[in-house]
Design a protein that fits this description.
heterodimer, A: 793 residues, alpha/beta, five-stranded mixed β-sheet, three-stranded parallel β-sheet, 31 helices, 8% strand, B: 301 residues, TIM Barrel, Alpha-Beta Plaits, 2 domains, nine-stranded mixed β-sheet, 13 strands, 33% helix, 22% strand, globular
Chain lengths: 793, 301
């Protein structure tokens, strides 16, 4: 990393996340204007977008080569009152909460109180939603059965393909004009709506060009004043680049990066979309520019590296927009899930790994910052050297890159009906979500708390936490004679709550399509322009709605425990078990221990438990997969939690797997914390029994200590572990490096850390099985190997 | 099919031969090394392990024991091993994993079933199975049965042996193994007797024969400071191995105190010693000596 990058990186790390009212003021100003009221919703929003980009501050930071900020300064984070209008109290909470806080000045709060809140209260999407959603939806939401992604953030969940590297905004405008010209007002009853939408897209495309030109002007101004000759030249170059892109297609590596960045800013200024946005297959998109630059001598590996690192800093300058309430609990992080994909396959099925893939891994390792996130796509055709290079970064312990299975991703998409080429050009974004990049709207609609549904089934439809009957009556469990009866009750409750969730989604999707169209994003995602349809209204080629299942491991252990202890081995009666759960195992620690220690668990390659897992998977899949959404697409499932397993755990009482009330649920498809006791191969075998191909992504976390990967052989064995999991169609795996602190925690709480494997000497063992002296020695050793800094949050 | 006694099957073993492996630990060992880190592998039959630190003092086991072999003090339980007949009732009622039976009788089929679970990992990594212990050659029929089954199933099989068995028994197993991990502790006969309780003459003799049969062999040398990390032993070992001509690979295993807890669990603290591992510098010196002598050396398994 050179001095410039070091400085920019440092500035980014030190920048304080704050709330800026810039966007809120500008959008309110526009919506209050008389002309706003005379337009269709699509045009209205495009004009608002234009107003923001014409008037927001232009920021060029000292030393930058790639320019543009979402707010007036790095980490100055705008708000989106048309989506959710924060209260003054929200702003105070954001300012004072211990985690993922945002500084908000008194002036900002005053603007909110005087201008923003009075205008948007009742008009924001959140307020509209709450007015429209039925009571049973609200009951289930409040009980913690599911969360709602679109309650504070707009649907986005999409990633770009290669189109912006081939076309500039002017080319898109030509496409839009051609689409308008083709409209048939005689035979197409939707022609008028389409024209309004296309007009809106045109306005949005022009707005981005204007925004870039303002940067060119600003750079020229700064260049005039600049005393340092070197910097003066750089600023002049910035001006040239910003005058060319995004109006025109980029001609070189640098223009390609700057072009993407303007497009990225356009998307994240238009709305606070879920998953900020993301260039996707960056090594593929940039490859032609990189190869050409090296050939002509305009670019060197070093200059490319510098530009990429400047580009990286731009992502880190944009924290995820502030979230409050349940949304903050389900996704409590500054990261905005821009997941750069490296590697994978080309559209023709050949290996996509190139020199730039390796260079990007260098950048990821050197930068070591929270954003952007990164992942590698490992295909069976890809070189092992690429996987090993990635694992050497993983080993340093900052959770990146995560490892994905290209073949699984492709199979998942083909099963969903996408073309093979579109599937191969796609990847995973957000946490682990599969998507046809540049062509799909794949909205995550909310997390779904499976264990809570079982809890309600175990209480005949009642939520024991509140005493409210929010489920249907499925009978008193003490009267069930077989496990099948219990399972049928669970399935009935599941169907009941999935129906409620989908009913809510049908309302919310149409609210967005009607009141908050997304003309700028629509330009970027095929085939919105050709169809003349908004991204929110089914314009994309593929439209998928996900309901993300949470707690598969917990759920499996819960049902397995009832099957094993109540029905098969009869170690406890249902009545006693339920009483113990209601009492949170008070005075019955022996029973809890039986459930924990003498009962089959998911994650041990034990078919008894894993077969139960499969039946839960089937039930969840059947309840959701293939149902129609409002965009002409279908519902699908995926299995990931972000941080919601903690919140879902809080609202769920004691469970039959021995988990006390309020404790977190399992995350992703990982086993319950500490339940896997047969090592990583057994975990992967259990997780491999999930039919990943029928999901849109699953998340598996594994822990390891750095010593397990001390040498080349360790790296290779980890590589083999991953490739074996991928042969079983595993979708994703991610490794968390265990720190000395974690080990100390494990020493204090052995039960929760039964799965922690450490390298002792010539062998590895479960940490909790090591004697205290040995544990202490391992802790000291781990401390010594912790050379590198943890990533800043 | 024959049956055997094992005390553990460990998956994802990556230090007992190439690739990702499953290691089967046989029970029973003719050596009694004072530093042994698997003391539960020494006796032939099952043994009760008591992890006092996990005892929740619920005393369910006291009532469950049909022979009254478990007593309750103010603290954790105590087992009268003279009275205990290893029926396992106490293990069944202990919900805290404080009681565990080390050793169980299994058939070849049982073990194969468990081994097969990780086939996908073996095939991907060039791994397989390692039979260890204890001493696998101490149960030659069972061991050979398992190895033959591995051969038939195209699973790479390594035999980890301390070398103390009749040649017939050892060869019965070794001839079926793809790789032999051969433990060499001390080259001096008297010291070997002192620290392991047995003479090393048959150990060395068997190794000579295996080398002559051109088996693929890795010599594994556990190193304890003050026991066998001195120049004399290292040089003696090098000289011995060089004379064999066909043994080229050496693994140096640095001692660790992992056995300490288990000595307590078996109530056999006085039968063992706690040593210090050689310093990292000394490990490096020893590695250098072997490397200079032309061996491929690995520190660790």
């Amino acid at each position: 990393m050179n001095e410039r990058v070091k400085k920019l990186r440092e500035q980014s790390l030190n920048a304080v996340p704050s709330i800026t009212d810039e966007r809120a003021r500008l959008i309110t100003e526009f919506y209050k204007s008389p002309e706003a009221g005379r337009m269709s919703y699509a045009l209205q929003h495009a004009m608002a977008f234009k107003h923001i980009l014409e008037h927001k501050a232009v920021c060029i930071n000292d030393g930058e080569l790639i320019v543009g900020e979402r707010g007036p300064a790095p980490k100055a984070t705008p708000t989106y009152p048309e989506v959710t209008c924060h209260s003054v109290q929200d702003l105070e909470i954001l300012d004072s909460r211990p985690k993922t806080w945002f500084k908000s000045e008194a002036r900002v709060r005053k603007t909110y109180k005087d201008e923003i809140i009075p205008f948007w209260r009742g008009r924001s999407m959140r307020d509209r939603m709450m007015a429209e959603l039925p009571q049973e939806w609200k009951d289930a939401y409040e009980a913690g059965i599911f969360t709602e992604f679109m309650e504070q953030r707009a649907p986005g969940h999409t990633v770009l393909d290669d189109k912006i590297y081939k076309k500039g905004m002017l080319d898109f405008i030509a496409d839009i004009d051609a689409a308008v010209a083709k409209l048939d007002f005689v035979n197409d009853p939707e022609a008028f709506d389409k024209r309004e939408e296309l007009r809106a897209m045109r306005v949005a495309a022009e707005a981005l060009i204007t925004y870039a030109r303002r940067h060119a002007e600003k750079a020229r101004e700064l260049a005039k004043k600049e005393k340092n000759k070197q910097r003066k030249k750089e600023l002049e170059r910035i001006a040239e680049v910003c005058s060319w892109v995004p109006a025109h297609a980029p001609r070189d590596f640098r223009e390609a990066l700057q072009n993407y960045w303007f497009v990225h800013l356009g998307v994240i200024i238009e709305y606070n979309t879920w998953d900020s946005f993301n260039p996707g297959r960056l090594d593929q998109h940039l490859w032609p520019f990189y190869a050409k630059g090296l050939k002509t001598g305009e670019l060197t590996e070093e200059s490319a590296r510098e530009l990429l690192e400047c580009f990286w800093v731009k992502f880190n300058n944009q924290p995820a927009p502030p979230k409050v309430g349940v949304t903050a609990e389900e996704s409590g992080t500054y990261t905005d899930f821009a997941l750069i994909n490296v590697g994978g396959l080309k559209a023709d099925g050949s290996d996509a790994v190139n020199d730039l893939s390796f260079l990007l891994l260098d950048v990821i390792e050197e930068m070591r910052i929270l954003q952007p996130s990164s992942m590698v796509q490992i295909s069976s055709k890809g070189p092992d050297a690429f996987l090993w290079r990635a694992l050497k970064i993983v080993k340093t312990g900052f959770g990146q890159p995560s490892i994905f299975n290209t073949e699984a991703i492709v199979k998942e998409m083909v099963r969903q009906g996408k073309s093979l080429e579109d599937a191969r050009d796609g990847g995973a974004s957000g946490c682990v979500e599969t998507g046809a990049f540049g062509k799909e709207n794949y909205t995550l609609t909310g997390y779904f708390n499976m264990p809570k549904v079982l809890e309600i089934a175990l209480h005949d439809g009642l939520d024991p936490r509140t005493g409210k009957r929010i489920g249907v009556r499925t009978g008193a469990p003490a009267k069930f004679r077989t496990f099948a009866e219990l399972f049928a009750a669970f399935r009935t409750q599941l169907k009941h709550f999935v129906d409620i969730k989908i009913m809510g989604n049908n309302i919310i999707e149409r609210l967005y399509a009607t009141y908050l169209p997304s003309p700028f994003l629509s330009i970027l995602i095929s085939d919105c322009v050709a169809k003349g349809k908004d991204y929110h209204a089914g314009g994309a080629r593929y439209n998928t709605s996900y309901i993300q299942g949470v707690g598969l491991g917990s759920m499996t252990d819960m049902l397995t425990s009832v099957k094993y202890n109540v029905f098969d081995k009869k170690t406890v009666t249902m009545k006693t078990l339920l009483a113990a759960l209601d009492a949170n195992f008070k005075n019955d620690e022996n029973l809890r221990r039986r459930l924990l220690n003498k009962t089959p668990k998911f994650g041990n390659d034990d078919d008894y438990a894993d077969d139960v897992m499969k039946s839960i998977f089937e039930a969840y899949f059947e309840a959701i997969d293939g149902r129609p959404n409002t965009k002409g697409g279908r519902y699908r499932i995926n299995l990931l939690p972000t941080t919601v397993h903690v919140y879902f755990g809080k609202v769920t009482g004691a469970t039959p797997d021995g988990r006390p009330a309020g404790e977190p649920l399992s995350e992703g498809v990982s086993p319950v914390q500490g339940a896997d006791r047969k090592g990583p191969t057994a975990v992967l075998k259990s997780a491999g029994k999930i039919d990943h191909v029928r999901t849109g992504g699953t998340l598996l976390n594994q822990k390891f200590t750095p010593a397990l990967l001390a040498d080349e052989e360790g790296i290779r064995n980890l590589g083999h572990l991953i490739r074996s999991y991928f042969k079983m169609d595993g979708h994703h795996i991610q490794f968390n490096v265990v720190t000395a602190e974690t080990l100390r925690e494990a020493q204090k709480h052995p039960d929760k850390n039964r799965d922690l494997i450490v390298r002792v000497a010539g062998y590895s063992d479960y940490f909790v099985d090591c004697g205290t002296e040995l544990q202490n020695e391992i802790i000291r050793r781990t401390e010594r190997s912790e050379g590198s800094r943890p990533i800043p949050d | 099919m024959s049956k055997g006694v094992i005390f553990d099957i460990k998956r994802f073993a990556v230090h007992d031969g190439p690739g990702i492996r499953t290691t089967v630990f046989f029970k029973g060992c003719p050596l009694h090394c004072l530093w042994c880190h698997n003391p539960e592998g020494i006796a032939k039959g099952p043994e009760l392990m008591v992890r006092s630190s996990r005892c929740a003092r619920c005393y369910s086991c006291v009532g469950a024991c049909p022979r009254g072999a478990i007593s309750r003090n103010s603290g954790p339980i105590a087992v009268d091993r003279a009275k205990c007949d290893l029926c396992g009732e106490c293990v069944n009622v202990c919900m805290y994993e404080a009681l565990e039976m080390a050793g169980r009788v299994v058939s070849v089929k049982d073990v194969v079933q468990e081994i097969e679970r990780d086939r996908i990992f073996f095939e991907q990594s060039g791994g397989g199975v390692t039979l260890s212990g204890g001493e696998p050659a101490g149960q030659p029929d069972f061991c050979r049965g398992l190895l033959a089954e591995m051969n038939r199933r195209s699973i790479h099989a390594a035999l980890d042996t301390a070398g103390l068995a009749t040649w017939d028994a050892l060869w019965k197993c070794a001839s079926r193994a793809d790789l032999i991990l051969y433990d060499l502790k001390l080259i001096d006969g008297k010291k070997h007797l002192k620290y392991t309780g047995v003479s090393n003459a048959p150990v060395l003799e068997n190794l000579k024969k295996l080398a002559a049969a051109k088996k693929d062999i890795v010599a594994r040398i556990p190193l304890m400071s003050g026991v066998n990390d001195d120049d004399d032993n290292i040089q003696g070992t090098i000289d011995f191995l060089r004379r064999l001509e066909t043994v080229e690979k050496v693994s140096l295993l640095r001692y660790h105190q992992g056995g300490r807890e288990k000595y307590k669990n078996l109530d056999r603290v006085s039968s063992f010693q706690i040593y210090e591992p050689p310093s990292e510098k000394r490990m490096e010196e020893i590695r250098r000596k072997f490397t200079d002598a032309g061996f491929h050396v690995k520190i660790g398994g």
